[in-house]
User: Fold this.
Amino acid sequence: MDSKKAIALIIKLNRDTIEGKLTWQTSRVQPSLGNGGIVIDNVYYTEVEKKILRLYKFSQKYYYEEDSFEWTENLRLEFVDFYWKSEFEFPPISILSDLYETVRYKTSGVESFLDSYLGDEEPEEKDTDF
Amino acid sequence: MLKDIIGDFISWDLDKWSQVTGVVGFIITIIGLFISLSIKSKLSALQFSYTFDKRINEHIRNLKNTSSQLNDYFNNYNTSTNLIKLEIGKCQSELEDIADKLSFKQSRKVKTLINLIGRKKDKNFSQQNASIKVLYWPFYIILNRFYPTSYEDVWRIYRLLQEVIVHIDNIKKNKKTMLN
Assistant:
């Protein structure tokens, strides 16, 4: 897949998520990973143009010699069918981490929590004039 | 035959010998000069390659940090415009440092982003919902200089930054493959 198209897609997903046009949900179905891979944190999914997109972080053994390996953390965005089987994996480009953080932030409900818990309390000014 | 040639050499006087050895010495010096220049250029290329390899991971890490910071600021865009300005300024210096280490062809994408940031970062930043005036060439080029940097412009910088990260990552991978 052309990396430019993959970047454009992930940026659009990220932007729509930030702007609230796209909502993600957590999935209870764990993806099956080879090489003793383990899913870290939640598995998220959303529906776009009648396709289900699944996003998750996982840890996998990376063998650099026959019996020497190290655990590496990766992110995966993929199309899944209605049985949660993977149909297509998007290239693992670095921008996936930005999308993952946005999805985590939005699905955690931290914004509504802060609004309801802090109420009318004014937060300290984040921005400063230069 | 061989005897004649040797005889010729023996019959040369000291003057002729000094002329011939002078010419031979000159030719050897010129060849030596070319060899040392070639070795020097290969050493510089090796030194450049070493510096590139040593620093490139740090550059990629810094660009990824900028990307993740910008992504974070998008969640509260209207209150983070000055922080965005600061972040893209940092990104511009990082990109200038990277561009020096790339060939002319490799650095084109990086320079496009440097120019875009240069045009946008010192202007006022408009709010996220500010209306965008659609201008067409040639009015766009003339009037765009006076418009503030919009939310769309920051997304454009972010998109180009992603392309640059992938581009530099690919250069690094290609170089690694060539060395193996």
